[in-house]
């Protein structure tokens, strides 16, 4: 599950970054911020997808990804609710939606990391 969650995060982040860079939907955020965030998402997406292709992803890097996703999700809620930018209604909806998605990635990755760290138990044999 961990590798799937990392790859899913990578694909979604890359796609969001491309959308932000190529289409730049009108959300009320300054263009320079959109370009910066879009560029970050493209690079991050490639990196996280690559991490998900490793035979055994490095636990420390996965933990950083999980923490980063949790911070990103919290920042999304703050950005949408504290009027840091003059977001449009669509902008608020998009920022909250991607924040919720990122939180979902963090949860999936945390569950995957935990299950990957659990010691494997031998299957019990039924008495014949």
Structure description:
The chain has 128 residues and is mostly helical. It has one domain. The protein is built from four helices and no strands. It has helices spanning 2-23, 31-53, 59-81, 89-117. The longest helix has 29 residues, at 89-117. The protein is elongated and about 50 Å long. 25% of the residues are buried. The mean pLDDT is 90. Keywords: Membrane, Transmembrane, Transmembrane helix. The chain crosses the membrane at residues 35-52, 61-82, 88-111. This is Integral membrane protein.
Overview in brief:
The protein is mainly alpha-helical and about 130 residues long.
Proportion of residues in helical segments: over 70%
- Element pattern in H and E: HHHH
- Count of alpha/pi helices: 4
pLDDT average, as an integer? 90
Instruction: Report the span from N to C terminus.
Output: 34 Å
The structural class is mainly alpha
Organism: Lentzea albida
Keywords: Membrane, Transmembrane, Transmembrane helix
Protein name: Integral membrane protein
Transmembrane segments: 35-52, 61-82, 88-111
Main attributes of the structure:
single chain; 128 residues; mainly alpha
Topology:
Elements: H1 2-23, H2 31-53, H3 59-81, H4 89-117
Helix pairs in contact: 1-2, 1-4, 3-4
Protein name: Integral membrane protein
Transmembrane segments: 35-52, 61-82, 88-111
Keywords: Membrane, Transmembrane, Transmembrane helix
């Amino acid at each position: 599950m961990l590798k799937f969650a990392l790859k899913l995060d990578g694909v979604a982040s890359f796609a969001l970054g491309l959308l932000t860079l190529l289409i730049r939907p009108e959300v009320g955020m300054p263009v320079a911020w959109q370009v910066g965030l879009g560029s970050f998402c493209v690079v991050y997406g490639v990196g996280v997808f690559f991490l998900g292709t490793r035979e055994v992803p490095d636990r420390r890097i996965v933990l950083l990804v999980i923490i980063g996703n949790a911070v990103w999700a919290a920042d999304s809620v703050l950005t949408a609710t504290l009027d840091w930018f003059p977001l449009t209604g669509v902008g608020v909806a998009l920022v909250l939606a991607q924040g919720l998605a990122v939180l979902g990635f963090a949860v999936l990755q945390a569950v995957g990391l935990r299950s990957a760290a659990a010691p494997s138990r031998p299957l019990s044999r039924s008495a014949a």
